[in-house]
Design a protein that fits this description.
two-stranded antiparallel ribbon, 6 helices, 2 strands, elongated, transmembrane helix, RAB5 interacting factor, RCAF1
């Protein structure tokens, strides 16, 4: 990473410190999340990205029915659980417990997944 792109990711604070951007914290396992809502936003958007990717995969590989939905739920919840408990190592109790982090943005990602899955499946496999 060049110095120019590093400067874009950092915001200088009034006291001379440097605040890293949210996107630079996402991939840094030692990141400190001062703002709880910022970390919850990251969880939300990671779920949306997972929903789009899995929706496209499920639509291209003609996966149907309850099996597709169940596998999506397991992957979506599992990936995020590993992300916040193992990679970021946040204290779940600060965010209301493991269940609150696991369900953050789940229903919207589920709806997005269904829309993408249906669009791709219909476009590729329906006469």
């Amino acid at each position: 990473m060049t110095n120019g792109s590093k400067r874009k990711e950092e915001v200088h604070l009034a006291n001379g410190g440097v605040k890293k951007s949210t996107w630079s914290k996402v991939f840094n396992s030692t990141a400190v999340w001062e703002d709880k809502d910022e970390f919850l936003d990251v969880i939300y958007w990671i779920r949306q990205i997972i929903a789009i990717i899995l929706g496209v995969i499920w639509g291209v590989a003609p996966l149907k029915g309850f099996l597709g939905i169940a596998i999506f739920c397991v992957i979506n919840a599992g990936v995020l659980y590993v992300y916040f408990s193992s990679f970021q190592q946040v204290d779940e109790e600060e965010y209301g417990g493991t269940w609150e982090l696991t369900k953050e943005g789940f229903m919207t990602s589920f709806a997005l997944f269904l829309v993408v899955w249906i669009i791709f499946y219909t476009a590729l496999h329906y006469d």
